[in-house]
Amino acid sequence: MITFHLHLSKSKKQDLQVVMHRAEADGDLAKCNRLLSIILLNVAHTIAEVVNILGVSERAVRNWLNLYLLKGLKSGKS
Description:
Oligomer: single chain
Radius of gyration: 12 Å
């Protein structure tokens, strides 16, 4: 199994937090989970740990990670 660690710059972390707070205010749980998965991966949680914390599938977490890596917060799903 490959170990993956996501490292985000300070500005990227701040951007994620801003968008996360907006999603929370809007009550968008799906968006909150997507963003929280990226935040958790950044603080050295494994994909398996994120799956357990959020109660979602591994495939979902991997899809969210791939989408973030490819499109960042500009993706329609971030």
